[in-house]
Amino acid sequence: MEWGPDDPETTAGLVPTPRMPAHEDDADGETGLLLAAHGGDVQAAHLLGRHFAQRGDRSAARHWWERAAAAGNLDSAYNLGVWHEKHGSPGDAARWYELAAKAGDVEAAVNLATLLLDQHGDVPAARRWFETAARAGSRGAARRLALLCEDCREAETAGEWHRRAAMDGDLASAHDLGFLAYASGEEDETLRWWELAARGGHADAAYHLGLFLQANRDPEGAEAFFRLAARNEHPGAASQLGGIALSLGDLRTARAWFERAACTGRIDDQRTAGFVCVEMSDAQGASHWFSRAAAGGDPEAAFNFGLLLIAEHSDLQGGQHWFRQAAQAGHHRAAVELAALLSAAGFAREAERWLRDPPSPLWDRATEPELVARAELAAAAVARRGGTPLRVSDLTEVLGTWDLVTRPLRDHTDVTTWLTERSGLPRGAVEHLASVRATLLRPGGAPWPTPVEIEHVLVTARALRTALPT
């Protein structure tokens, strides 16, 4: 992209702030600098470039920086790189950055690596320059390099660079190290890195550490870190604190926390806020939250909103609408209630269809908090670095089902055989369910499950609940 005519009023806002070491001073004035620069003074040429850049005279700034850079001034080369990048000339920017980077300029090496990665997708070249900068002490380059290594499935190397960045104060890398350790089953390291990041103010680290402690049956420790995360406006932490208050019967506090989370758009918390409002006999509040969650596609909220419309306003048409929305999304009770409404309204044929083939009941059992925490940690770990997300509700159903159907057993030494014989399901399917469950509870022994695997084991889990009395 060519630079246009020099017009200080229109170009001043387009000029990047030039870099100049603190000891530099152009107090001698333009005339003195011009005389020195024409006499071959490289530093004067660099200062002239800065002087004209600040005035918005791009052509003159480029001229003097190019003269200074050609004579070896790294700051001029760096400034030219920034300038060309800002004005859409990535090729020229890369050329000047590379000139400075090859001479040892760390910032230029970072900018060059970023440019190569973002503009050209040149991962090998970007990686080389990030490593050059990281070895020269750039914390940001160490982190970017760690993330590139993660993307290349080089977990050990990624950990080394994350560790270097974290020890230099990068809280995001400390948080990432916690996840790498968790996925490897290294719980002491998980605790170490998440606590380091959490106490430094990293909200996600505080939240995940709270889940980790909850999963390890330390509710007091979990609550302390949820509160730390909530102070940094973490909606998940607000939801967890709402659940804690609800378990203690403190509806007012629970409502405040759930509504705080719900206001960020979290559908599960909108629905739960609705239920708390029902418990507090606040039909208007319940209607508000159920309607928001229902509009967001939540079938349970749609069903309860329909019930509320009928009970509070005798709005049969509205109730029918939301029952149908819920039933079409797979809500069993909504299908049954919809059939009753349709039958009463004279639509016997449609009512019969819903009664003849209602959706299977959704998982609505209370699940131990430590299992829910393991499910959420696994989902978060899988979703990192662009992984295909897993639904926490699905993982909770897998863990909760196993807990439910094996509850009668006193001896768990051969639980797979017992489940296979009692249910009549193929042994391989039950073993697959057991394997996925083990990975969710104790990571490190096998890769995280894929979405397809979760679909398969959910079929097995639901068949077990159907076959075995619970």
From TrEMBL:
Pfam families: Sel1. Residues 1-25 are annotated as: Disordered. InterPro entries: Sel1-like (IPR006597), Sel1_AlgK (IPR050767), TPR-like_helical_dom_sf (IPR011990). It comes from the Bacteria. This is Sel1 repeat family protein. It comes from Streptosporangium longisporum.
